[in-house]
Amino acid sequence: MAQTSMKERSELQRKALWTALIAVSAILILFPVFWMVTMMVKPTDVMFSRPTEWFFVPTLDHFTYVIEKNFHHHLLTSLFLGSISTLLVVIIGTPAAYAFARFDMRGRDDLFLFVLASRMAPPVCLVIPYYLIFARMDLLDTFVGLTLAYMTFNLSFYIWVLRSFCRDLPVELEDAARLEGWSRPQVFLRVILPLLRNGIVATAVLCFIFAWNEFLFAFMLGGKSVTTLPVAIPTLITTQGVRWGEMAVVGMVALAPVLIAVFFLQRHIVRGLTMGAVKG
Predict the structure, then answer these.
(1) Whole-model pTM?
(2) Eight-class DSSP state of 226
């Protein structure tokens, strides 16, 4: 009985220690978010006062300025470009990843290396050729042009990651379906896609985040008629100084879509990542 009581006490102490460590880690991670939330409603004259004023009269002036400067339009632009480019990447990249994983085509490894090379190249090496090509095709500062640009750096990543999912799927399932008389497209739609659902969702969320945070392509290939949120944020750095309250508002707004997507799709993301999406 005494040994059992000591084991239970030791187990409770261990759990309490891990709980405390997790709580401290959560506080350290969430404190910058809490600080940004306070800056959203903190008056400018007390924002950097020393010592820090924790009690103040909230203000909505920062929200008013952000709305007057049409930052909500930039938010919708980023949402549209990120969503459309990610959707096109999924439509094009899923069959391509399956083909790389299953078909023994001529020059497959060389072609796959070319796909990877387009992702490994620094964006600054690609944006100038894109600018010259888009200028000749009248695609500068257009939704079509930026969507194509976003697809180029996300498509290679999507194919590379999803290919590992396809290679982990048992070939016997496809062979059994073929023996039942199903065609290759039917096998892909009815057997492969349901099994790849978690991997597709996890990889698509990562592609959306990459497109959502992208700055260089949006700045060089857009920036006037089509302005994304990352491009619009530097306008808050004015000759009078940085508008920290407005930047906090825009920062929290930029964080919201990613948090919402991860919250509703976390089950698929966790399953996808644990199935081998990050394997070589």
Answers:
(1) 0.82
(2) S
